[in-house]
Write a structure and sequence with these properties.
about 80 residues; 5 helices; about 85% helix
Length: about 80
């Protein structure tokens, strides 16, 4: 799981070059617009981990909120998406 989580920064850095080619001068605006939801997600994980320290596992939170089957699907969705 640690290996899966560590690939996202590399993909993010790799896509900046192709984004610059496609979007040109609009890249700074695109990066700022995409920063806002990511910041809000990070803040949500921060506060959820204060209430229930579970290292941000999707499986645990979805299982508590919606049941074991959706939690299982959510856990595998994150793994397979990576």
């Amino acid at each position: 799981m640690i290996g899966l989580a560590s690939t996202a920064p590399a993909y993010s850095m790799a896509i900046i070059g192709s984004t610059a080619v496609i979007a040109g001068v609009k890249v700074p605006a695109i990066l700022w617009i995409s920063f806002v939801p990511m910041f809000l997600i990070a803040a949500a994980f921060f506060y959820l981990n204060k209430v229930d320290p579970d290292c941000g596992t999707t499986f645990a939170w979805v299982t508590r909120a919606m049941g074991s089957w959706p939690g299982w699907i959510a856990g595998w969705a994150v793994t397979s998406a990576t």
